[in-house]
Amino acid sequence: MNPFVFQSATMTVFYQAGVDELGEPAVKGTTYRNLINTVTGEQIQTVAQTLIGLTDFPYIESVKTQKDVIGA
Predict the structure, then answer these.
(1) Which residues are registered as beta bridge partners of 6?
(2) 60 phi and psi, to 5 degrees?
């Protein structure tokens, strides 16, 4: 069986940027690329909350997306 090989990872930080015309939350996200493969969920949350702390928007969640390829 061929092993998975890390290729890339991104982090998307979601926040509430206001409300729409129906009063529903307007959710927006910002994606940050080039995460290293050893980053932990706790580290992602710390960075995301720090970044949101620099804005006036409420933090919703962070998502790490990792792309691996099957080695030949």
Answers:
(1) 68
(2) -110, -60
pLDDT in tens, 17-44: 999 999 999 999 999 999 998 998 899 8
- What token pair was written down for 70? 């099957």
CB 62 within 8 A of CB 40: no
Are 11 and 42 within 8 A, CB to CB? Answer: no
Q: By C-alpha distance, which of 16, 58, 13, 64 is closest to 36?
A: 64
Closest CA to 60 of 9, 18, 23: 18
Give the DSSP H/E element, type plus range, for residue 60: strand 59-70
Report the predicted TM-score, pTM, of the whole model to 2 decimal places.
0.80
DSSP string, 34-55: ---TT--HHHHHHHHHHHHHTS
